[in-house]
Design goal:
The complex is a heterodimer of chains A (218) and B (178). Chain A is α/β, with parallel strands linked by helices and 218 residues long. Chain A has two domains: 96 residues, 3-Layer(aba) Sandwich (Rossmann fold), CATH 3.40.50.2300; 103 residues, Arc Repressor Mutant, subunit A. Helices cover 39% and strands 14% of the residues of chain A. Chain A has seven helices and seven strands, in the order βαββββαβααααβα. The longest helix of chain A has 20 residues. The radius of gyration of chain A is 29 Å and the shape is rod-shaped. The N and C termini of chain A lie far apart (65 Å). Chain B has 178 residues and is an alpha/beta fold. Chain B has one domain: P-loop containing nucleotide triphosphate hydrolases (Rossmann fold, 3-Layer(aba) Sandwich), CATH 3.40.50.300. In chain B, 33% of the residues lie in helices and 24% in strands. Chain B contains six helices and eight strands. In chain B, the strands form two sheets. Chain B has a six-stranded mixed β-sheet, sandwiched between helices. In chain B, strands 2-3 form a two-stranded antiparallel ribbon. The radius of gyration of chain B is 16 Å and the shape is globular. The chains are: A alpha/beta (218), B alpha/beta (178). Chains A and B meet through helix 4, helix 5 and helix 7 of A and helix 5, strand 8 and helix 6 of B. The structure holds guanosine-5'-diphosphate and magnesium ion. The site of guanosine-5'-diphosphate has 17 residues of chain B, from helix 1.
Chain lengths: 218, 178
């Protein structure tokens, strides 16, 4: 079982003695895993709020003169039960963090792929070179849609009747070529825009579009 | 029953009559006459509007209009464009300055293009590879215009169908989204 390293090098002697006394008490519990260590690295460093930020530790726990709503603070005078509760919670958080697969290194935003569940709106910046779309009519249709208007993947999927994954693939392809602008517009349900000028209303327009496609064999 | 218009425009010989003929259910009504300008190397030229027809199952009709073969932009076309559901610009890449040809139409229809669905087809890129499609895309980008543009041979029905489908997708984009 890994030990968890607790540091108190910045505290005054009376507080060091107090914390050490608490720890002797806590260590009666066989599941208690914290140990006071003399030097870094520290999983947690307990400091006075006057201590500057440039201390290095997994988490900095700050002692404050009055009760604070900020996370990772404990009020003075330090109480055994408060510190114990805080350490249990910190242990739990640390264990969870260690069980999680390490998140991949932070990549520059342009390298990140758009996930099919993304709720961003995508807008084409420039018409893509022919090699990107090929003569694939579905891709041409998707590029055309977002050349006109910023759309979410689910909107693209609904209009083109293609799977979300295919829409995401096309957006990623275009994005890889630097042709996509991401717009994080307020997330609202798919809405009907204004009717196009030549059509009485949206449903007339929709049935017209599908009528033409039928006629052309699309 | 409603009637809609799609307008085909472009320089003489760009393929307007051919494109309309590729998709029209009836042979296009062609108003060509013998061309007396021998420098144009084309025996016939369109003097009036060509038109073809698509009748939908609903009974709705689409008239496919081809603008007459003139060298200059005609403001009558803008009036036609006002009532059209889409505009297809055809460019003949074998001409001496086809980029400038496109610009004539982009300028002429500039006000309409912000709302009017539009698609651009470049013909004869196989035999005349320069300027490239990328050169055309640059021109559009420099003008801050984003219009679908593709290589076409309008003698092939599927190429004309793709141009029309691109107009339809623009109508759909105006229906949905933020
Ligand atoms: N190679 C090639 N020839 C074409 C293409 N489009 C039209 N043509 C030919 O060019 C000629 C003029 O076409 P036309 O449709 O009358 O042009 P319009 O003046 O724009 O109506 C015809 O002989 C067509 O067969 C094309 O994309 N590629
Ligand atoms: Mg003609």
């Amino acid at each position: 079982m890994t030990i968890l390293r607790f540091g108190i090098p910045h505290l005054s002697d009376p507080e060091v003695r107090l914390v050490k006394a608490f720890f002797r008490l806590y260590s009666q519990d066989p599941t208690f895993r914290w140990t006071i260590v003399e030097g870094p690295p520290y999983d947690v460093l307990l400091v006075d709020e006057s201590v500057s930020e440039d201390v290095v530790a997994g988490t900095v726990l700050t002692l404050t003169p009055v009760k604070s709503e900020l996370p990772n603070t404990l009020e003075r005078p330090l109480r055994s039960d408060h510190l114990e509760a805080w350490l249990k919670k910190a242990e739990y958080d640390l264990r969870n963090a260690r069980l999680q697969p390490q998140p991949p290194e932070e990549q520059p935003i342009d390298e990140q792929r758009i996930d099919p569940t993304s709720s961003s709106h995508f807008k084409l910046r420039r018409w893509p070179p022919p090699a990107l779309l090929g003569s694939n009519p579905v891709r041409v249709r998707m590029a055309t849609l977002i050349s006109r208007r910023a759309l979410r993947l689910d909107e693209m999927a609904a209009i083109t009747e293609q799977p979300l994954a295919e829409c995401a693939a096309v957006v990623n392809l275009l994005r890889g070529a630097g042709l996509i602008e991401i717009q994080d517009l307020p997330d609202k349900p798919m809405t009907m825009g204004r009717a196009g000028g030549r059509f009485a209303d949206q449903s007339v327009k929709q049935s017209f579009v599908s009528g033409v496609r039928n006629k052309l064999g699309l | 029953m409603n009637e809609y218009k799609i307008l085909f425009t472009g320089t003489m010989g760009a393929g307007k009559t051919t494109a309309i003929g590729s998709v029209s259910e009836a042979a296009p009504i062609v108003t060509d006459v013998a061309n007396t300008d021998l420098s144009l190397g084309k025996e016939r030229t369109t003097v009036g509007l060509d038109f073809g027809l698509l009748t939908l199952a609903s009974g709705d009709r689409i008239r496919l209009f081809g603008t007459p073969g003139q060298q200059r932009f005609d403001f009558l076309w803008k009036i036609l464009a006002k009532s059209a559901i889409g505009l297809i610009i055809l460019v003949d890449n074998s001409r001496s300055d086809p980029l400038a040809d496109l610009v004539v139409y982009l300028d002429g229809f500039a006000e309409d293009l912000s709302v009017l669905p539009c698609a651009i087809g470049i013909g004869r890129l196989d035999t005349h590879p320069v300027p490239t499609l990328e050169d055309y895309i640059d021109i559009l980008a420099n003008r801050n215009q984003l219009v679908p543009i593709m290589s076409v041979d309008v003698r092939r029905r599927e190429d004309v169908v793709l141009l029309i489908d691109t107009l339809l997708a623009q109508l759909e984009a105006n229906t949905f989204g933020a």
